[in-house]
Amino acid sequence: MRQLLNSTFEGTLRVPGDKSITHRSLMLAALAEGRTEIKQPLKSEDTYRTMEIMRAIGADITELDDKWIIESKGHEHLHSPSAALYTGNSGTTSRLIIGLLAGVGLRAEFSGDDSINKRPMDRVQKPLLEMGADIRLKDEKYPPVHIFPKPLKAIDYNMPIASAQVKSAILLAGLFAEGTTVVRESSPSRDHSEIMMQQFGADLVSKDGVISLEGKKTLKASDVTVPGDISSAAFPIALAILKPGASITIENVSLNPTRSGILEVLEMMGADMHIETLPGGGEAIGNITASYTPELRGFNISGEIIPRLIDEIPILALLAAYSSEPCTVSDAEELRFKETDRIRAVVDELSKFGIRFEEKEDGFTVIPGSIDSVPETDVKGYHDHRIIMMLIVFSIVSDTPLNIDDSSAIDISYPGFINDLESLRKDA
Ligand code: S3P
């Protein structure tokens, strides 16, 4: 990583495939009858956890260089796993499989790593119990999760929090429930499940925050081409904006509006950025070029935009530190329930460099000021991929060598992150 300091960055990059879409394509392919090709999937720690679980319940998966092939006889032929399942660090795997396993009517038990075993699962359990499922949690909240087969009936559910994982778990269960499942969202969360379920033949309608899904329909296999993950692209984009002389183009990234809140904030900040949309059906995609911007304006974000950029808030905090005006994030208490408490992690680590925060329960304000030049500092990554990548971008932008306690968690969403940055080094 130190070779990346005192460099400038220029060029074109393709970031790895979208994590949310890769998880969902594995699950829907396992449920569907036939042969699904997933092209350019994200090959990472988290998505391999989903793959192993789909194999454990009977999907036949072949891994080729640039694609995965899933063959399934359909949900009726899936079976209960013979051993306890392991979801590692993956919140999406953990939440979504509760809905999938309960929906198909399988008996299963799973837990994850230390972080997952402290993350709340009752938010998924609650609506599924209303559907008639039998799901038991440790201390009524955490993994290990035990799921027992029970017939399900459709519910009409008002989402108490904006969470695509909870929404998707309900929809996965709803695919096999008796009746029409309705989910109502007050703020839109990512809608990949809805788009992909329609593509796989589900009878699903989504309009004005209300999703209706008919149960008891058989899914049909359908090929998926996974676009680049905007949550991964956010790191080289921030690097380009903050590093003098830099200009980076990220090709073929998902521009799904339920994910692209970060681009709206970068526009508010006056970042030098150009977006080219590309033709195609399904998920919106495009190329993003970002370049060094010496003067960045402030922002004040809350409400409906928050779920559309929830995973980008650590890197937004870093961008905010370089703004000449205050930057405020509110309504983001969900950040405290991610891989780590991301509000605490961002404030604790960036404060070591004199960056001033006013921390709130649901966010923070970054106060403009200078960033201390520190010779060499120990920082913590909290085994959280997005905190670690943010710290690496900070290290490069500030030319400050950082000793990160453990950076292996990068592999959760972006294996090859350091190599990709290396490939953009002008003097490489
Ligand atoms: C995800 C949904 C979001 C996001 C996570 C991936 C998904 O979580 O933070 O990284 O793929 O559905 P919540 O549903 O908890 O908001």
TrEMBL record:
Monomer. Belongs to the EPSP synthase family. The lineage of its organism: Bacteria, Bacillati, Bacillota, Bacilli, Bacillales. InterPro entries: Enolpyruvate_Tfrase_dom, Enolpyruvate_Tfrase_sf, EPSP_synthase, EPSP_synthase_CS, RNA3'P_cycl/enolpyr_Trfase_a/b. The keyword Zinc does not apply. This is 3-phosphoshikimate 1-carboxyvinyltransferase. One of its GO terms (molecular function) is 3-phosphoshikimate 1-carboxyvinyltransferase activity. Its EC number is 2.5.1.19. GO terms for biological process: amino acid biosynthetic process; aromatic amino acid family biosynthetic process; chorismate biosynthetic process. It comes from the Bacteria. 3-phosphoshikimate binds at K19, S20, R24, S163, Q165, D311, K338. SUPFAM superfamilies: EPT/RTPC-like (SSF55205). Phosphoenolpyruvate binds at K19, G91, R119, Q165, R342, R386. Gene3D superfamilies: Enolpyruvate transferase domain (3.65.10.10). Catalyzes the transfer of the enolpyruvyl moiety of phosphoenolpyruvate (PEP) to the 5-hydroxyl of shikimate-3-phosphate (S3P) to produce enolpyruvyl shikimate-3-phosphate and inorganic phosphate.
